[in-house]
Amino acid sequence: MSAGWPVELRDGDVVLRPIRYRDQKSWQEASRRNRDWLRRWEATVPPVPPGRDAGRRPTYRQMVRYLRGEASAGRMLPFVVQHQGELVGQLTVGGITWGSMCSANIGYWVDEAVAGRGIMPTAVALAVDHCFQALGLHRIEVCIRPENRPSRRVVEKLGFRSEGVRPRYLHIDGDWRDHLVYALTVEEIPEGLLSRWHAVGRPPTRATGQ
Prior knowledge:
The protein has helices at 24-33, 35-39, 60-72, 119-135, 149-158, 193-200; strands at 9-11, 14-18, 77-83, 86-97, 103-110, 139-144, 161-172, 175-185, 207-209. It is an alpha+beta fold. The longest helix has 17 residues, at 119-135.
């Protein structure tokens, strides 16, 4: 994973960079502000059999330690999203699988105060291009609850292909929830996803990776 991580990706005022321990204050403030906005879409832990410990919700530092470990193992790219220098969300490339599959999935959230400004589509496009062009992955998948219209608009704006429903796919907000599956393969966007987004969604700006 050393060729593709750690990395900082930028397009105009939108930056993806690795999550850090020192992000704790701004990350927690953003999470607190958006608690009601995000609660319906947050992953939860299903009930466990009697006698088995479900475990406590991890602290911020435990979360970052886990994410960094997964990144070091080549299984995940844990980014925060910045806009004009402020932390406004999180984007994680997870489930990275090599061999005959070469795929991953993307999950994300954004501060309600900046939703609808094109920040998250830009962030997703940056991440997808990095996965395809730098890492050499072949397929990216995003799974979204049917009720989550803002999140669905992100992938629909970017031209992700709908692949149908996965019934009771993830435990979200206290129950097993259906999810819609959206996907792209590298052959579908030879020009790059950021270029497509610039062409259909916003004026072009220069993207860089460091």
